[in-house]
Structures are given as C-alpha cells and as structure tokens.
Amino acid sequence: MRRLAVAAAVAVILCAAGCSSDDGSDSGTVTLDVSAAASLKKTFTTIADEFEKQHDGVTVRLSFDGSSTLVNQIKQGAPADVFASADEKNMSKLGDLAVDPEIFATNTLVIVTAAGNPQDIATLADLNKPGVTTVACQSAQPCGAATELVEKNTGITIDAASEEQSVSAVLTKVTTGQADAGVVYVTDAKAAGDKVATVTDPAFAEVVNSYPIATLKDAADGDLGTEFVQLVLGADGQRILTEAGFGAP
Fold first, then answer.
1. What's the CA gap between 237 and 96, in Å, rounded?
2. In DSSP terms, which residues pair with 33 in a beta bridge?
3. Are the beta carbons of 121 and 113 closer than 8 angstroms?
4. Which residues are annotated as a binding site for molybdate?
5. Are residues 44 and 113 located together in one domain of the fold?
6. What keywords are assigned to this protein (predicted)?
7. pLDDT by position in tens, the chain (length 249)
8. What CATH number has the domain bearing residue 173?
9. Is residue 76 part of a domain?
C-alpha cells in the first residue's frame, strides 16, 4: 500500500510539472473558438492563419457546419467565442447571446453540375429534367432558405433527391458523382474549380444572403473575439473574402 501511495504522489508531481490543460493555459497558449457557416471554410481558415500570425500564443479553433446546426450547438453549450452565420435569420436565433452582429459579406446561389455539364443543364427549370438527380440544402439552413425563395419567385419547385444540412454536403454529392447537379453558393462553385461546371440563372441575382458575424456574450475571451471580428471586417479580411467570390457587405 505504501508503495502505491508513493507512486501516486510521484505521478501527481510529474503531472503538475508537465501536464497541460485542453485550453493550453499551462503551455502559454490561448484558444479562440470560432463557429462559422460551411461556406466560409476556405476563407475563415485563411483569416484564422493570419490572426494567429498577428497574435503570438493564440490558436484559432474553427468549427464549420450549416448555420442552423451551429446555432443549436451553441445553445447547447458548445464552446464558441465568435459566430459567423450565412444569414441574419440564424444569427437572430441567438438573441442576446450574439453581441452587436455586423454584416461582413454577401453571397448568391448558383447551380453546379458534374464537370462538363453532361446533362446539359442551362436553367433552374432544367434541374427537373427526366434523369437528372438534383440535391439542395435543408430549408433550415441559409442555402436552403435562399433556394426556397428562388423557387417562390420563379414558381419552379426543385424536385430534390435529397436535402443536405450544409452547402458543402451538397457540393460533395455533386463532385463525388452522387448527384448530377446541386444548388450552392457562388463561392463554393469557385472553390471547387474544374471539379464542377457552373450554371447561372437570372433568378439567383434577386436573392442575396447577408453574412453577419458577432462575438458571443459568454465568450471565454471577448476582447480576443472582438479582434478577430475586426480582422474579418477590416481590409485584410475583406480582401480574402472578395478573392473567394463573396460580395461586399
């Protein structure tokens, strides 16, 4: 028993000297948790890298998913210091938890097809052609809500084979051959490059999603979160977003 007690004491001492907590506090690092819409994955990864360069000892931990999904996670206690939504509706669902949201970008929809557009899709109505498998976003997600508004404006209801929980999931189904076409954001189509063909329709220009960003009321480090928001809103962040195809706020 005495040997076990001594071993346990030694283990405690060693851990006190060398163990570190998940937040990196013992190693001198700070973690900033940023939850962002799936369509922001490429741009926010770049912005996070820039933020880390400007802030020694800070690690930005990114979480990407459909905006509605992220809101539910935040409400359930998921760690988040900053939230960037693909629409204002989902930001508003956080109520007072979101501190002074600001619009930082805009985005519109587009059709993506398999490379070369083998089904000869030219318009929104062509998504319902016989033999064409189309996928879209769930209506709870900003990309799905925008798609529904386009459908309402045009009177064309897309016969989707499946409704996905994020725009990136829609894109994946097209690039992997599980679907012939999908409705995604302009920025997602641009990021996919030659993996897809892009088809525009005049109706898409009438539906514009505004992207808000905010620090969260219960953020572990509100000041650091505010600095991240300022980077997104500033010249460097706006340049990165514009290069990816996002519209101005």
1. 25
2. 61
3. yes
4. 39, 67, 167, 185
5. no
6. Metal-binding, Molybdenum, Signal
7. 334 343 444 343 334 333 333 444 445 689 999 999 999 999 999 999 999 999 999 999 999 999 999 999 999 999 999 999 999 999 999 999 999 999 999 999 999 999 999 999 999 999 999 999 999 999 999 999 999 999 999 999 999 999 999 999 999 999 999 999 999 999 999 999 999 999 999 999 999 999 999 999 989 888 999 999 999 999 999 999 999 999 999
8. 3.40.190.120
9. yes
Q: Is residue 93 part of a domain?
A: yes
Residues in the chain: 249
Annotated binding site, which residues? 39, 67, 167, 185
Rounded-to-integer distance, Cα 191 and Cα 108, Å = 14
Domain that holds residue 120: 109-206
The DSSP-derived string for 138-198 is -TTSHHHHHHHHHHHHHT-----SEEESSHHHHHHHHHTTS-SEEEEEHHHHHHHGGGEEE
- Find all residues with CB under 8 Å of 169, minimum gap 6, and list them: 38
Answer whether 91's CB lies under 8 Å from 238's CB.
no
Tell me, yes or no, whether 159 lies in a domain. yes
Structure tokens at 143: 């990309």
Contact 34, 81 (CB under 8 A): yes
Q: Are 246 and 107 in contact (CB under 8 A)?
A: yes
Show the tokens assigned to 243.
Answer: 């290069």
* H-only helix segments in the chain: 2-18, 41-54, 67-75, 88-92, 142-154, 167-175, 186-192, 222-233, 235-243
